[in-house]
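Lab notebook, design round three. We kept the backbone fixed and only want residue identities now. Task for the bench partner: fill in a sequence for the structure below.
Input structure tokens:
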């Protein structure tokens, strides 16, 4: 009980614990499906009364998708849905239809539901969003093949396969790679009472393009007129997309001329496809020229057109050259949509080009472009990491002075960098601005501020933020207390940890795994190991199960004190309680045995570690290398060092320096030079070693 008795009385915990307890169609599928199996694969058939009684109102906010699945799995699905609709227990709106379609696992069910919806409310046939959802479900759960049984099922419901239904199915087959099957269906549409038309041909050609069957797509294109079907703008755009995707841009240009020859002018979608195609073919200059052509024809580029150019330019040339080219283009095109700058800024930031990003950000803000918060966060995060702090501060000031709102994340990241650089006054200025802007107004954001201070060990500032939080009437939660407890633990202020624990209890919170782990850590840091072990017992009594982090903290603390025996017992207890030891659990013990020059014991632990499928890391290897070198076993140390990479552990700077120092002290300068040369080749900047 010593772990907690110094914190709060036993009765406090007991009282709190008490409070907490209160058939004209011939089969044409490759593998004809059995519709009865579709109908019975989900759940047993229910009688009518059980289904009708299960739900009193379909208009509830939460849709019972299982209930719909049961109805759609029955042979009399159509009658049941009609009955529910007539009884006004189901309301058809966009949200309901989409939700039911998305939550079906059997591809037959969403298709049945869509057929019924169109019969009740034909306007949904023009809803591309609903149609897209159905296509995605059929792709995800499919394929749903057009068997004779499926056609008969639809006819039994009083409906027929229409061109609209067929196009949705063909679209899903194309995405699934069933191009040849799409062609087979097109050739037999007469069995469905349909005649080939341009829309069906377009669906099949598009499916073939998705399957990378360009030759077959061209064949179908050429056969259209045989069936008295004339290609339209959609047909040509689909083919242009296909040839651009295949890298044959010149053929795409030929198709554009052919399209114009039959009376169809290229539209914005045509040009977007061509821009993408030219960029993929590394013909960037021609991609830029297309914007001039569009302007001369009165066609306004949309966001997709601009994004295709920006992404394409960066994709096919070095970022600095791409930025230069796009910047010149921006100067000539003052009326481009926001996406032009936001796409460029996103690429520059994610590829860590902070100076270019800062330059473009200035241009974007001066031009009045709107940048959403997520894009702005990515940009400013890049600037904070990549620019000098003075430059970053100037850039942030430039942004905020012009009325651009900056998120809490940016203020905290910049303040963190300033505090770490010792520029406390500047850090305070940005945090003050954050509060003035009203960005810190609830528990979540106060926790973020407190966490920022705790991570850089500025506990007085963290405490001030906590007091301000209370004065403003913002209620702390258990995360607030855990963050502060963890922060004070790391600076070894055990008394403060105790005060906060008492406050946590007074606010009616139960200590959780994070609370106990921080308490144990604080006690271990000041070498109060017995109290820490008592705290471990106490947390179990509270019903909080220790985890690997909790045990590792105690194991490491005991090892530091040289009490390896108790550390081993704790490791066994940890495993006995079903908690999987990790590499950190073993490293503390291995390092202790190596320091004691008990290499054989350390190796036995390593064997146990490998048995548990745990991979040694740089700390593990470093401990053995140091011990072997100290024992004069340099050949073994060398063999171990050079085996690291083959065993999946690339030596880091500390391990390399450790090995270098050891072999230099032993007079192996030539060998040390080889290692140093290899490290430099890998980009490791080791301090110059004068003895070499």
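Proposed sequence:
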């Amino acid at each position: 009980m010593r772990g907690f008795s110094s914190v709060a009385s036993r009765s406090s915990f007991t009282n709190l614990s008490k409070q907490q307890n209160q058939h004209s169609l011939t089969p044409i599928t490759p593998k004809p499906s059995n519709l009865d199996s579709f109908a019975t694969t989900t759940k047993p058939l229910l009688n009518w009364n059980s289904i009708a009684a299960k739900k009193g109102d379909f208009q509830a906010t939460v849709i019972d998708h299982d209930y719909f699945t049961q109805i759609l799995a029955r042979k009399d699905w159509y009658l049941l849905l009609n009955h529910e609709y007539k009884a006004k227990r189901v309301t058809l709106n966009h949200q309901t239809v989409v939700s039911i379609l998305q939550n079906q696992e059997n591809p037959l069910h969403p298709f049945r539901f869509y057929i019924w919806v169109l019969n009740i409310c034909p306007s949904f046939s023009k809803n591309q969003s609903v149609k897209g959802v159905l296509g995605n479900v059929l792709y995800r759960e499919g394929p749903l093949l057009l068997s004779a049984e499926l056609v008969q099922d639809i006819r039994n419901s009083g409906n027929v396969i229409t061109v609209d239904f067929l196009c949705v199915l063909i679209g899903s087959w194309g995405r699934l790679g069933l191009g040849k099957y799409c062609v087979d269906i097109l050739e037999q549409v007469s069995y469905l009472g349909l005649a080939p038309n341009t829309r069906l041909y377009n669906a099949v050609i598009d499916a073939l393009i998705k399957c990378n069957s360009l030759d077959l797509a061209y064949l179908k294109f050429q056969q259209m007129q045989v069936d008295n079907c004339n290609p339209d703008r959609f047909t040509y755009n689909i083919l242009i997309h296909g040839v651009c995707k295949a890298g044959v841009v010149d053929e795409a240009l030929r198709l554009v001329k052919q399209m114009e020859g039959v009376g169809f002018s290229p539209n914005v979608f045509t040009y977007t496809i061509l821009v993408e195609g030219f960029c993929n073919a590394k013909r960037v200059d021609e991609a830029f020229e297309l914007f001039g052509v569009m302007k001369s024809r009165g066609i306004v580029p949309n966001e997709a057109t601009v994004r295709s150019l920006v992404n394409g330019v960066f994709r096919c040339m070095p970022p600095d050259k791409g930025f230069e080219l796009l910047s010149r283009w921006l100067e000539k095109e003052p009326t481009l949509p926001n996406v032009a700058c936001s796409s460029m800024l996103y690429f520059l930031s994610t590829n860590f080009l902070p100076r270019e990003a800062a330059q473009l950000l200035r241009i974007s803000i001066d031009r009045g472009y709107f940048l959403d918060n997520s894009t702005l966060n990515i940009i400013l995060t890049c600037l904070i990491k990549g620019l000098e702090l003075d430059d970053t501060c100037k850039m942030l000031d430039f942004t905020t002075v012009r009325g651009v709102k900056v998120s809490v994340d940016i203020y905290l990241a910049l303040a963190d960098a300033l505090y770490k650089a010792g520029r406390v006054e500047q850090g305070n200025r940005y945090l003050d601005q954050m509060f003035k802007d009203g960005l810190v107004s609830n528990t979540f954001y106060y926790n973020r501020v407190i966490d920022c201070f705790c991570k850089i060990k500025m506990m007085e500032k963290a405490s001030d933020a906590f007091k301000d939080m209370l004065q403003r009437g913002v209620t702390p939660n258990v995360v607030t207390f855990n963050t502060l407890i963890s922060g004070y633990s790391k600076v070894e202020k055990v008394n403060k940890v105790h005060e906060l624990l008492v406050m946590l209890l007074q606010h009616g919170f139960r200590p959780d795994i994070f609370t106990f782990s921080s308490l144990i850590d604080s006690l271990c840091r000041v070498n109060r190991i017995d109290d820490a072990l008592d705290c471990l017992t106490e947390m179990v009594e509270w019903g909080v199960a220790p985890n690997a982090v909790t045990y590792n903290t105690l194991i490491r603390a005991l090892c530091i004190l040289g009490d390896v025996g108790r550390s081993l017992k704790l490791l066994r207890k940890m495993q006995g309680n079903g908690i999987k030891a990790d590499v950190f659990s073993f490293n503390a013990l291995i390092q202790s045995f190596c320091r004691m020059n008990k290499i054989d014991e350390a190796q036995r632990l390593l064997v146990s570690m490998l048995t548990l499928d745990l991979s040694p890391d740089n700390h593990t290897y470093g401990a053995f290398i140091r011990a072997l070198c100290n024992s004069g076993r340099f050949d073994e140390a060398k063999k171990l060092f050079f085996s690291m990479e083959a065993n999946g552990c690339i030596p880091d700077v500390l391990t390399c320096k450790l090995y270098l120092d050891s072999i230099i002290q032993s007079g192996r300068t030539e060998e040390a030079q080889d290692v140093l040369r290899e490290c430099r080749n890998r980009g490791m900047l080791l301090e110059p070693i004068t003895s070499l």
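Keep this in mind before ordering anything: Residues 1-61, 688-692 have pLDDT under 50 and may be disordered.
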